[in-house]
Design a protein that fits this description.
The protein is α/β, with parallel strands linked by helices and 198 residues long. It is built from 8 helices and 7 strands; from the N terminus they run E-H-H-H-E-H-E-H-E-H-E-E-H-E-H. Pfam families: Isochorismatase (PF00857).
Length: 198
């Protein structure tokens, strides 16, 4: 069983550019959004549960400088400048309205796939005496995986609810979940998450 006081919800990169038809990732990587499952509804329900129980919710978003000076290697690997991918202050970088940070929730801004890299996420969690993390968001095999890997290295107990994370294709999501299952995290149906609390 998990203690509510020691558990936080991390909502990762639920931003406009990640899944909207005219978002940067869809354009840049030619993602077929018609194949995307609805992960927003189960994430909203988890947010409701955490807020109703006075638990910590941390929204994590990615923002890059226009010239990608805060991650030049990304600009070498992908056409991020052309599509202004998650550019600071742009609509592309905005968290989608249904999952916008609510009163009392925290916001962490990152400039790598890993939510712990050069952010205050670890300090924030430790200040709230958090030992368990429920990780949701996108993409399963990119930012969720990278953030979970760091959390595992930092000795957090991680749980990833299957229905609350998505990737560029069902195949990539399946692959990401398999990697997450290898030590990094428990991977469970979202209904099982609610049963974990005492």
């Amino acid at each position: 069983m998990l203690s509510k006081a020691e558990t936080a919800l991390l909502v990762i990169d639920m931003q406009y550019g990640g899944g909207a038809p005219d978002g940067s990732l869809v354009q840049m990587l030619h993602v077929d959004v018609s194949r995307q499952e609805d992960i927003v509804t189960p994430i909203i329900r988890l947010k409701d549960f955490f807020n109703e129980n006075g638990m910590l919710v941390v929204n994590i978003k990615t923002e890059y400088e226009e010239d990608f000076s805060n991650w030049p290697m990304l600009a070498k690997r992908f056409e991020v400048k052309k599509y202004r991918h998650f550019a600071r202050g742009s609509a592309d970088a905005a968290i989608i309205p249904p999952l916008a940070p609510r009163k009392g929730e925290k916001l962490v801004v990152k400039h790598r796939w890993d939510g712990f890299f050069e952010t205050d996420l670890d300090q924030l969690l430790k200040a709230h005496h958090i030992v368990n993390l429920i990780l949701v968001g996108a993409a399963t095999d990119v930012c969720v995986l990278e953030t979970c890997s760091s959390a595992f290295s930092l000795n957090y107990n991680c749980i990833v609810p299957i229905e609350t994370t998505a990737s560029f294709s069902p195949e990539r999501k399946k692959l990401g979940l398999e990697v997450l299952r290898f030590g990094r995290s428990q991977v469970v149906p979202v209904k099982e998450v609610y049963k974990l609390f005492n």
